[in-house]
Amino acid sequence: MTQPLTIAGRTFSSRLFTGTGKFASAALMEEALLASGSELVTVALKRVDLQHQADDLLRHLHHPHIQLLPNTSGVRTAKEAVYAAQLAREALDTNWIKLEIHPDPRYLMPDPVETLLAATELVKLGFVVLPYIHADPVLCKRLEDAGVAAVMPLGSPIGSNKGLRTADFLDIIIAQSNVPVVVDAGIGAPSHAAQAMEMGADAVLVNTALAVAKDPVTMAAAFKAGVAAGRMAYEAGLAPTSAQAIASSPLVAFLDEA
Amino acid sequence: MFKEIFEQYQWDDVKANIYSKTAADVEQALHNQRRTLDDFAALISPAAAPYLQPMAEMSHQRTLQRFGNTMQLYIPLYLSNECQNICTYCGFSLDNKIRRKTLSAAEILQETAVIKEMGYDNVLLVTGEAHQLVGLEYFKKTLQLLRPHFSHISMEVQPMDEADYATLIPLGLHAVLVYQETYHQEDYKKHHPKGRKSSFQYRLETPDRLGRAGIHKMGLGVLIGLEDWRTDSFFTALHLQYLEKKYWQTRYSISFPRLRPFSGGLQPKVEMNDRELVQLICAYRLFNQEVELSISTREQESFRDHIIRLGITSMSAGSRTNPGGYAADQQSLEQFEISDERSAAAIADMLKKSGYEPVWKDWDQVLG
Questions:
Q1: pTM of the entire structure?
Q2: For residues A188 and A164, what is the distance between their CA atoms, to the nearest angstrom?
Q3: Which of these, A52, B40, B172, B320, could form a disulfide with B147 (CB 3.0-4.6 Å)?
């Protein structure tokens, strides 16, 4: 058994967080999310009908082990994000919010300035804030100072499935963070997820790689296994790597010479 | 302004460049990771016709990665067929003797009730161009009337001034579609001899005005059939590329309306067959992974069923193209003939059977 993960007082036994977009149907999404074992599932506010309780997407997410993490996808400014978070809190009865501010609709790159502003405000308003950001170590520290519950740096452009192109920066973020680090965006294969976990990330968030797979349910199970294996390896302590066999020490051999 | 870029290009040169593309140019374009406008020219050229299968496969994969197994659904709501323009190809043209109608607030709400019943949350408001009757004040009232009913409101109406757009956006206007019809200046004048629409420049600069006003989304396109579609599409892509860099916070969509018959109407100068339309759609997707590609009920049923896998991300269904068409069921005032007559529910069913989730709602007015 690996250690559980705690964010803002809530304990998760699964370190695989998931999204709900791009699936061929809500029923297939539900089946895949159940196979993933995920306990924290993000939902775009813009996709749910907050006025009607019978929303199809939400109905398929109604399981006791699944906590909803509403996200602010679509907003372009801190002001809009704060407003959207307040609506989500009211409608979905949770003070958790995945803060996403990407004013650039093409590459969906997070805006660091607006995100820090919004995070500061939302923490003051009592939200549990999980901001989606670039793999920027300084920004992570600034957000931590602002009181966020975790940071969610990207592995590569969202939806790209390219894996951990930001590995060097994730490494720094993980090394110096006092809050959980969740690698979000760009994770395209279970091996990418395992790599993030081996590096010491606290969790990963995966969406496109599941939703767009030929068989999302089996892929969800594969990610579950990948995340678990990566975490076990991290806790077990990976053996050091070496590019070549280590010879006897010719440089210091003279010390042993009589 | 796009005008400065546009003026650097000559129609005949662009056309000659497209028609001079070779198989080697097409293969290079297919090979490139990031494709240039010149690659787009190769992909829409006659030389790319034998490469339709690999283009379709790549387009499908790129669309799937970006948009997933989903299809956005929207429906047009025709508010008025009053028009002071003469356009040679349009059923609403001033010189076309049809009964004119502009919906009252009560009639708009009647239409809305029917549309909402179909499941729609994403509506496209359409009018002709009649500034006194259907101008800024009418649009303000209509947006205020409709905002509580729809999470996403688009407009396809006459081009307006920047200040007008800036007034309408906070009232709930989310997207504006404004098609150039053709980028061929002389032919544009021939097809739009009278009315405000006769100003090529004012229309050409509309996306700039929209961008400055901070619109969330804009739609571009040309009316296929007026001029050489390849050359017109190159200019559309040029426009798109310019806008994406300049107004980087705005989303873009492209439509491909093919000239449809109406009573006494214009026959297309240039025919575009189904294979060519597929080629164009795939070329857009290979050129730009993020742009939304939209197909309307102008197209035939079987064509629409197949096209959903090839790059399209949004479609209309159950449409009527006449004011009052949903609630009052009058078919006499329509702008063009519908080809795909299936209901919204039938289209949703077709999408599900094809492995696509119909998306009725993908925006919320609360998001700004």
A1: 0.85
A2: 9
A3: B172
Q: What is the arithmetic mean of pLDDT over B67-96?
A: 90
For residue range B201-244, what is the model confidence (pLDDT) as tens digits?
999 999 999 999 999 999 999 999 999 999 999 999 999 999 99
Task: Map out the domains of chain B with their CATH numbers.
Answer: 56-367 (3.20.20.70)
Beta-bridge mates of residue B126: B78, B156
Residues in chain B: 368
The beta strand positions in chain A, using DSSP E, are 5-7, 10-12, 16-19, 40-44, 67-71, 96-99, 128-133, 152-153, 182-184, 203-206
CATH superfamily name and code, A5-256: Aldolase class I (3.20.20.70)
pLDDT tens by residue, B293-304: 999 888 889 999
Which is the catalytic residue, given A22, A46, A79, A98?
A98
Cβ pairs A/B, distance under 8 A = 77
Domain boundaries, chain A: 5-256
The answer to whether the complex's ipTM is over 0.95 is: no
Q: Name the residue in chain B with its Cα closest to that of A86.
A: B366
Q: What is the pLDDT of residues A118-132, one digit of tens each?
A: 999 999 999 999 999
Looking only at the bridges linking them, the beta strands covering A182-184 and A152-153 are: unpaired
